[in-house]
Amino acid sequence: MKKRRALTMLFSLIFVLTLSLSAIAAPLKTTISVEAKNDAVKAGEEVTLAVKIANNPGVNCFTFCINYDSERLELKSINTERQITVEDEVVNVPYWSGIYVTKPDTGKVTFAAANAVKKDGIMFTVTFLVKQDAKAGETAVKVVNERLGAYEGGNTQNIAADTVDGGLKIESSTTGGNTTGGN
Description:
By secondary structure, the chain is mainly β. 13% of the residues lie in helices and 53% in strands. Strands 3, 7, 8, 10, 11 and 13 form a 6-stranded antiparallel sheet that branches. Strand 7 and strand 8 form a beta hairpin. The longest helix is centred in the first third of the chain and has 24 residues, at 2-25.
């Protein structure tokens, strides 16, 4: 009986350890997220939000659609480059090496590259103008993943990714009213 109990405990321990190791070895889920601004933005101001990837397995292509409240925000640009200074000269450098096609009028951005980009971080940024008559409060900016892929064996393999919404807070536009004095 003692042998059987010891054997059962040994198999239970092996089972628990196997589950623990498989959880550790499981790859992390790829995530595409839009930056969330903490500071309130006023009507008439522009705000830029970064679109980032985490746990990137190696991406050769993507197509995303930017969703936002067009009653409150106007998409001014989809930015695929950042500025750096090299020997006192400002140079535009793409976030990722490849070809971007941006369509701010439809909110779409497409990317393709011969070699997979494997780094985490900013993929591109989006710049919005807060409309003059924008209602105050939180407004979400979302990325819809239409295509995220990697070339493998001459074929494009889809990459599953979670998306995380971002956005901003629009400050209340309070205007001073008239006051009348009493006697």
